[in-house]
Design brief:
The complex is a heterodimer of chains A (115) and B (115).
Chain A (H helix, E strand, L loop, with lengths): L3 E4 L2 E4 L5 E7 L5 E8 L3 E10 L2 E4 L6 E7 L2 E6 L8 E8 L10 E2 L3 E5 L1
Parallel strand pairs in A: 2-11
Antiparallel strand pairs in A: 1-3, 3-8, 4-5, 4-9, 5-6, 7-8, 9-10, 9-11
Chain B lengths: L2 E3 L4 E5 L4 E3 L2 E3 L4 E8 L5 E7 L5 E3 L5 E5 L4 E6 L8 E9 L8 E2 L3 E6 L1
Chain lengths: 115, 115
Amino acid sequence: DAGITQSPRHKVTETGTPVTLRCHQTENHRYMYWYRQDPGHGLRLIHYSYGVKDTDKGEVSDGYSVSRSKTEDFLLTLESATSSQTSVYFCAISESSVLGYNEQFFGPGTRLTVL
Amino acid sequence: AQSVAQPEDQVNVAEGNPLTVKCTYSVSGNPYLFWYVQYPNRGLQFLLKYITGDNLVKGSYGFEAEFNKSQTSFHLKKPSALVSDSALYFCAVRDINTNAGKSTFGDGTTLTVKP
């Protein structure tokens, strides 16, 4: 398995509180991604990074911010959590490629519940 | 724009029978296509991908997929299903003209293989 860890694995928080999820990789891959998985919606891209301090928005980025200060770490922050952000969050990584056809490797997921 | 559809939420097959999980896609250019599998409480695992060349792609665990450009399909197949193949399967697409960070995933198909 690719060396990807996510922390915490489970979190319960209250509406309005800030939450930060961490993704850590040991593969030195250039690309890192944050997805959320919800029943009936598959996987939806929140944000991704194509290098240190280089990030871009995905299709469901509202209410989320990210930071990548080191190659190995990619943080996802919910500034003020809402119940609609209750979900399972997956981090993924992929190698760089000029053509961009590399597959992604996924972490184990973080189950977040916002009460 | 790019999109992918998995028309069946659920596929049921008997062990030993062939299985097919369907995927259709839409891209403005040429596609890169991927299949991933997710076992309960786990992250997604890469199965196979189509980049170019031979339309029949072979992947992990005896799975294969056939790229059909005229039908814009990339169906996942296996000649003889195993109970252990029971899982959630995702198809993903990336237009080769799209930023390498942005793949689009289908909503997933739950495969159940009965003994």
